[in-house]
Amino acid sequence: MASIVNMEVIKQQIIRTSCASSHTEYLMKNKNPLWLNPSFFVSLPFKQNEDVNPTKANYLGMNPHHYKLAVKECSELVDQGIIESTTSPWACEAFYVNKRSKQVRGKLRLVINYQPLNHFLVDDKFPLPQKRSLFQSLANAKVLSKFDLKAGFWQLGIQLDDRPKTAFCIPDHHYQ
Fold it and tell me: What InterPro entries does the entry give (predicted)?
């Protein structure tokens, strides 16, 4: 048991000395979360010379339990400044699925089907790197950190001009 505690203490010291100090200056300047910091906003690269008619959700409905969850979750996201009500002509379908991770298996997760929007975006032709080359590039690293996006999709801000394109709907509500 003592070795586990010592390992945890060592881990915390490494994190404090190697990660926290390197981010202190950034954290002092930027107290907002990433989704409210314009320097981290993502833009949606639309294809040029293509007629772009806004997507419209083919809404299949939600059972009453899922609807209550969606209203509650969206209300919390609005309160946090992550999403907002909209009158955008765009709309993608939102629905619930069961989480697949072992820790929370069976818990419901709100998902949005953005496949119709993908049709209008420029494809990224850059190939994904192989695992081996990624690990080789880390061989001489002095500091490793991870960017944990617990609710990843919500933690990346979208450029103001592109936000209407990210609109989604639940029964009686329309958000972006």
Answer: DNA/RNA_pol_sf, Rev_trsase/Diguanyl_cyclase, RNA-dir_DNA_polymerase, RT_dom
